[in-house]
Design brief:
Helix content is about 50%, strand content about 20%. It has five helices and three strands. The protein has a three-stranded antiparallel beta sheet with strand order 1-2-3, with helices on one face. The longest helix has about 35 residues. This is Flagellar protein FliL. It is a single-pass membrane protein.
Length: about 170
Amino acid sequence: MAKRPEKKLNLEAGNAKPKGGRLKLILLILLSSLLAAGVGGGAAWYLLGGMQAQTPSEPAPKEPGYLALDPPLVVNFEGNGRVRFLQVGIVLMARDPQVLEAARKHLPAIRNDLMLLFGDERYEVLLTPEGKEAVRQEALEAVRQVLMDRGEPADVQAIYFNSFVMQ
């Protein structure tokens, strides 16, 4: 059998370093620093993202609720020397359900004050869009006043006329 040539080993005390050791050490330091940077970046993203989620933002506005005053109000008033009639359908809008429940509870008083309000109006005023808008604002204030007089929450935000018929 053929003999293999023997490799000469240099076993002197000063030359016993492995040749690939320096490269492995550099790669190990590089990988550990990349790992540390990744962990630090991930932790910062997690913590900063968590802090943003914890800060209170503005609460979303509540959905509006509606209460129709059924049946429509029918009032008579005088206009140009003649008896005139007004039939108006009214819807209240509030974002707090407690306000609508209070309005439902005191509906007879609200209807009474609105009938008195509409009965005092002049026919010529109600013919114009500006007059209708002014009466709508007065009606809103009247509804709020009825609720406040009874110690109820009065944050009715709007009144809408869903029908408005004059003869």
